[in-house]
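seq:
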Amino acid sequence: MRVAFFGGTFDPIHRGHLRLAAAAADAFDLDRVLFAPVGLQPLKAEHAIASFADRSEMIALALASGSHNSSAREHLPPTANFPDSRFAMSTLDAPRPNGSPNFTIDTLGALVLEYPAAQLFVLSGADSFLDLRRWRSPNQLLALAEWIVVSRPEFPLTEPQLAALALTPTQRDRVHLLTTVHEDVSATDLRRRLRTGDPCPGLLFPAVSTYIQTHNLYRSP
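struct:
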């Protein structure tokens, strides 16, 4: 079984996240992609705006969205079929009881215990992956899982940039580049639009947009 961990703030989850996951699952023959909202990221000064509970609920709504949502599907790969049985939500990165940050090395350790016989992957954006040497236990991270790194139009990943990480040949073989996803959705811009009451049609699944409006998320005070 091939299982990918897809962590992030998902504040909120948008169609780009599902497009990315579908492309990765197709390209690397993944059996399961786990969408895991993070409690507290250690390398980001700003906290998520929506609560962990709200972000989790929005993920569940997005993953359950059916193919009748044509406005969201038009930007997805032709092979995408939602609800996608390969996708699931995970609470492995839930807030820690003591309020400490969520370190990926701890999360992957828990993932190994949950899927002891699986081949594990981590789905990451290029900008995050290039900070790998600042993460806790980077060499162990590369040993526990293979990495699918998404090169974005606004942040293309090059071999010289990877060289700066000083990966060994074995580690480099465990890093796979995904260059087929050209996604221009900015979470910062999305939240800015949501603050004004814009439902962001085509960027959010309708159920997620309704949840945001119902719970008055991201609106300016």
